[in-house]
Amino acid sequence: MKIWVDADACPAAVKEIVFKASERLKVEVCLVANQELKIPKSPIITMVKVPKGFDVADAYIVQNLNANDMVITADVPLAALVVEKGALAINPRGELYNEGNISERLSVRNFMQSMRESGLIQGGGPAQFNPADKQRFASTFDKYLHILIKKSK
């Protein structure tokens, strides 16, 4: 079992939660980004730098993902691919993506993107990450991490 982090836009607070859990529970973590990131010195925490480009990090994660893995991402299309492969995907704000909600999330994301592209909506984007988001993530992450650990034994 491994935790993958779509790390380019992942909040630092989320990465810290993942690092601490990794060390405490001895679970491998791999951050994937198109730039060099600081990570703790640890044999179980690694970082892969991929070339810049559209969905390059996503493709790397999907190609290397196993069904008993977890992916931390705010990227809904990536989350859809993760769920399709039978793995878990969690948003940095603590939302679990699953077979029951991913198609709706993808539809809403695509609709909003088309509205922005047509000029009907200006700007947008998620609200600033806050302490409540951090707490929701920590709770969801902890719950599903323990489920995966039990499942992998």
TrEMBL record:
Belongs to the UPF0178 family. InterPro entries: UPF0178. Pfam families: DUF188 (PF02639). It comes from Fluviispira multicolorata. It comes from the Bacteria. This is UPF0178 protein GCL57_04820.
